[in-house]
Every structure is written in C-alpha cells, then in structure tokens.
Amino acid sequence: MHKNILVVIALTVITAACYAQEGWHTQTSGTTAYLADVYFADAQTGWAVGAVNTILHTTDGGDNWNPQSPPPSVNYYSVHFIDDQIGCAVGATVGGSGRIRRTTDGGNVWDIITPPASAYSLWSIYFTDADNGWIAGGREEGFNIDPIRTIHYTNDGGYTWDSQLYQYDSLPLHGVHFADSNTGCVVGEHGVIFWTTDEGDTWIQQTSGTVRHLWGVHLIDANNAWAVGIRGTILYTTDAGNNWISQSADTSQSYGDIYFVDANNGWIVGNDPDSGIILHTTDGGNTWNPQNSGTPHGLTSVYFTDADTGWAVGNIGTILHTTTGGTGVKEDESFTHIPANFNLTQNVPNPFSRTTTIRFHLPLSEYVTLKIYNIIGQEVAALVDGTLKAGEHHVVFDAQNLPHGVYFYRLNAGDLYQTKRCVLLR
C-alpha cells in the first residue's frame, strides 16, 4: 500500500515538472535582428532568417542557434530546404534588388545565385521536391516608383530561375505555398490571390473579397486553403479558391503566417500593439483559440514538424518553441496507477453550446476540486472545492460567460487526478 502511494506521489511530481514545460517557451537566438521566417527539415535541424544578413542554424531543436555567414548584404525574408543539406534563402538588398542564396551543405557555405533581371524583393520561397520551386515577390510602391509583382520558378533545384508572372504597376506578392507538384497559391497586397493547377504555367487571379494585404497562405490539399493578413484577416476556401470565405477576427491584430500539420491542426501567428499573437485550431479552422506566446514582440513565421513540435519567430530576434502544440494544459491520455473506481468521464454533451454535465466517481470520501482551464492554462471556473462522499457525482458546467473554444477540466482528489478536454461552440 505504501509503495503504491509513493508511486502516485512520484508520478505527480514528474507530471508537475512536465507541466512547467508546456506551452510556448523562448529560445536564445543570439541576435536582436528582425527574424522573418523559420523552417525545419526535421525535429532537430532548422534555420531562421532575417534582416541584416541573418541566417541562424540549429541541429538540436533550437537549444542552440548558431549564426551562418552568407555573402553580404541581404535582408532575408524566406528560407526553404529540400532536405537537411540543400536549401535556398531569398530576400533583397536595402535598395530592393532581389537576392538568392543556395547551400548544399546545410548552410556552412551559401552560394550566390543569379536572380532573374525582373527580381525585386523576394518575399517567399517554396519547393515541392528536389527540382521544382517558386518565389513570390515584387517591388513596393514608392515615391516616383511603380509597384511590380513577380513569380519566379526553378526546375533544377534553385540553380536557375525564370519568370512565370510579371505584372507592372501591380502590388507585390508576399506568400506562396503548394499542395502538390501542380496545385499552388500565392497571395499579396491589396487582397490579391493567384491560383495554379499546372505548376505555374498558368496563374489565375481570384476574388478574395478583401483589399487588406495578405501575408501568408497554406494549402491543406488541392481544394482547401487558408490565407491571413493585416487587420485580423483570415480567409479560407474549400473549392480551390473559386470562393474565399472570411472569418471574423480582431481587427487590432495582424497575422503574418499560417501553418497546418494536417486537416485539423493549424496555427496562425502575428501581432497586436502589445504582444505576439498565436492562434490554434484543432477542428480544421472552425474555431481559433488564442495561445499564450509569452512575448511582447510581434511574430512573423511559424513552422511545425508534427502536431506537438513547433517554432515561431519574429521581431527583436524572438524565437519560440513548443513540444505540446502550444497548449498550456495537456489532456491525460492514460494514467495506469489511478484506481479503477476513481474515474472522471467525458462531459455530455461534447461539444456543447452553453451547459454540459461532468460525472465522476470517488472510491473514498475525499477533499475534491474540479476546475476548468482555458487552452493557455488559466483557471476560468471552479465547479467543486470541498469534501465529497464516496460514490457517483455529477456537476453542471455553465459556460454562458465564456468565449467559444477548447477547455480542460481537471479533477483532483487527494493524490489522484485526471484531466479531460471539452469544446464550447456558439
């Protein structure tokens, strides 16, 4: 009996230590430069790029970020690797001339690649395989300078680049992503969206329904895609961009990037006047829940290698990392040391629109707490706080005054506990 008690106490201490590591945590970048993009070839090997010739590299998941030395002088806006050795970084000089750097050894050496004559600022790069890649770019509008938008293409792994789209007196493009070797999308300023189904041989301009600048785009498959931009803009399509649907969002926020690991799990990053913004969905974008970034600095790019492991980068050399999908509370998948007659059941109904019932069983009379937490780990309600007799119990959770989203409910009884997840929909 005493051995079992010690096992439970030890597991509780271990779990508490793990809990302290959940959510988003700052990694030391070693720079105060603006970081524009992040990419990982696997859970250990990644790069972050930014202003003032900044390229950082890690081989240990970001515990250590080491500067690399590409040829000067470039502000880098985007990076993409074909594998852990071959990749390209793109950007522009201070004057706005496009620059391309390519490496075949993980970034120890970055070679200068001659860009097309029409290459101005190069904002985003994406490869679908070892040969085929695209760059979205263009020139900003300025005093006595007309804007230009461009799309460039390579079929030899980034050694040479040709122009697929060049439009004079048109605002630039800022994001590119492909679902497969044929189907891709680019987005840009003034709500512009282009779509291709033939590797970019033809780019069709679509109606976005907004004039707000778009900065990031992600295709889940050949039909479903998301785009984000300034003033809280979130757009999605389920029919290959024939119709783009707007989701309501906080217009004080601006979103710089979006990333999905599968059809259900995705993240958006950005900024408001006071902090870095991270939004998370687990239901394919039906609901977006805020996560605690823990930083006052704006975020520009996000990348995940799986549903738990991800990074976000932004202003003032900010790099954030999570190994729990960014959540502040983790649901207990199993706990084999909990007695069979101690049980917390799934709430019914779930999802729910206002009220739901939570049932649990106690093996002994015990001091019990049952509390509700939001997705960043903040307590939002205490349903039980006192001594209860052994046996079956049920509690009604009324969420009338809470926003929609994912919540966790946690039952503590002495040294025993369980946590489960519920979803509030409006």
Q: At CATH's second level, what is the architecture of the largest domain?
A: 7 Propeller
Q: Helical element count?
A: 1
How many structural domains can be distinguished in the coordinates?
2
From the alpha carbons, calculate the radius of gyration and give it in angstroms.
Answer: 24 Å
Give the overall form: elongated
In helices, the fraction of residues equals under 10%
The CATH topology assignment of the largest domain is Methylamine Dehydrogenase, Chain H
Mean pLDDT: 88
Low-confidence stretches: 1-20, 330-338
Query: End-to-end span in angstroms?
Result: 47 Å
**Oligomeric form of this entry?**
single chain
**Count of extended strands:** 35
Largest sheet: 4 strands, antiparallel
Biggest β-sheet: strands ordered side by side in the sheet: 1-28-27-26
| Helix-strand category | mainly beta
CATH class of the largest domain: Mainly Beta
CATH superfamily of the largest domain: YVTN repeat-like/Quinoprotein amine dehydrogenase
Question: How much strand content do the residues show?
Answer: over 45%
What does it look like?
The protein has 426 residues and is mainly β. 4% of the residues lie in helices and 47% in strands. The chain has one helix at 2-19, and strands at 25-27, 35-40, 46-50, 54-58, 66-67, 75-81, 87-92, 98-103, 111-113, 121-127, 133-139, 148-154, 162-168, 173-178, 184-188, 193-196, 204-206, 214-219, 225-229, 233-237, 245-247, 254-260, 266-271, 276-281, 289-291, 299-304, 310-314, 319-322, 343-344, 355-362, 366-374, 379-388, 391-398, 405-413, 416-424. The strands form nine sheets. Strands 1-28-27-26 form a four-stranded antiparallel sheet, with no helix packed on it. A four-stranded antiparallel sheet has the order 2-3-4-5, with no helix packed on it. Strand 12 and strand 13 (162-168) form a beta hairpin. Mean pLDDT is 88; it is low at 1-20 and 330-338.
